[in-house]
Amino acid sequence: MSSTQVETVKTNLGPAPAEAKGKLRYIAQGHLPRASPHNFHLPDMSEFGDERFLTLRSLRPIPTLQELPTCSHHVQLDTQGFTAILHPTPLHASPFGSHSFKNPELLKEHVIPNTADMLKQMTGCKTVITEALLLRSALWSATDSLAAHGSVQGETADLETSFPQFIGFNPINGGASPASKVHLDYTPEGARTHIRKFHPNTTEASMDIIRHEDDLVAAGKVLSEDYKHGEGPRWALYSIWRPLKTVKRDPLAVADYRTYSNEDYVPVGVNTPCLGRPGTSETHSAECYLARHSQRHKWYWIDEQKPEEALVLKFFDSDSEEPHGVSAGGVLHSSVELPGTEGEEARESLEIRCLCIW
C-alpha cells in the first residue's frame, strides 16, 4: 500500500458524526430462543423481542496498520476485542473495481494473501488459515442463500466443496443478507466444534490443538483453566469485514467486549453443514451467543464505511479464556438499521473468516 494511496483514501473520508442512533435486536429478559431449522441461520426474527434504538459511537479517525499500535485512543483487539484499520488491498487499485471482490479467483490471488499478511502483522501469529469468504449483497430476508450452501450440484459445486469456502457467491442463489440480530458466532464450545467439524482442511490444520485439548480432557482438566497454560498452541478465530462500496444502509455495529457480563450471553445452536465432504448432507450444531440488553453495553460503527476500511473482529481466543468466563474475548455484533436509510440499495460486503495459530 503506497503512501499516495493511503493519503488519497484519508482525504476522501470526510468528517463523521461522533454518534448516531440505530436499531439493535436483543433477546428479551427471560426468553429462551429456539434454534433455526435453516443452515447457517440465527433464530427467527420473532425470537428477538427486545428492539432498542441505541447510541453508536464513531470509530473515526481510522489508523493504518502501521499507526494502530501507537493509537492509544483507538479500539484494540486485545482490549475491546475488535479494531478498525485503513487497509486497501490490491483489488482496490486500477484496473480492479467492486465487481472484482465477487470473483473467487481474484480473491484467492490478491485478497486472501493480503489479509493473511495483515493478520500476522496485527496479531503476531505464525499461521493464518483462511476458512471462508462470505458475500452479502441482498436485502434482509428470513431465509437467504446461506441456507442452501453446501447442497448445490453441477458446475458451481466447487464453490460448495472447495477450501476456503465461498459462501454467497453462487450465481443461482445470490449473496446473503445482513445479519440484523445481536450475536457472537461462536461460544468457546462452538469454536471447538467448529475446528473439528466445519471442513476437513480446518481440522487438519488444527490437529495439534485438537490433540492437546483431547489429552487435557482425558486427564480430567478444564480447558478454560488449563489450555493456555499448557503446551498447546494459542489459537483464535477472526472475521475481517469490509464493504464492496460505501455503506449507505445496514452497517455493521460492534460491541466493546469489556462492557458485557456473563449473564448477558444467551447460548443457542446454529445448524451448520459439514462442508468439504462430497456426497454427504451431514450437519452439526455450532453453538453461538445471542444477548440480553444491559445499560453497560457500548456500541461502535464506522459512518459510511469505505471499501478500504476494514473491521477486524475476534470470535474466539484461547488466550482470553477465563475459568469463570463464558466468552473467550469474542465480540457481539450486528448489522444495524439507521433511520432514513430504508430506501438505499442493499449493502454489499465481504467477510473473510480466518483461523490464526501461534
Write the layout of secondary structure elements.
Elements: H1 3-13, E1 19-26, E2 50-58, E3 82-86, H2 104-123, E4 127-136, H3 158-161, E5 165-167, H4 188-197, H5 200-205, H6 207-218, H7 223-226, E6 235-243, E7 252-255, E8 265-273, E9 283-291, E10 299-301, E11 309-317, E12 333-335, E13 349-357
Helical fraction: 10-25%
- Mind summarizing the main beta sheet? 6 strands, mixed
Q: How far do the termini sit from each other?
A: 26 Å
Content of β-strand:
25-35%
GO molecular function, one term: oxidoreductase activity
Protein name: GA4 desaturase
InterPro entries: AsaB-like
Organism: Emericellopsis atlantica
Q: Any overview of this molecule?
A:
The protein is α+β, with helices and mostly antiparallel strands. The protein has one domain (21-66, 75-357). Helices cover 19% and strands 25% of the residues. The chain has seven helices and 13 strands. The protein has a six-stranded mixed sheet. The protein has a five-stranded mixed sheet with strand order 1-2-10-7-12, with no helix packed on it. Strands 8-9 form a two-stranded antiparallel ribbon.
Question: Can you summarize this structure?
Answer:
It comes from Emericellopsis atlantica. This protein is an alpha+beta fold.
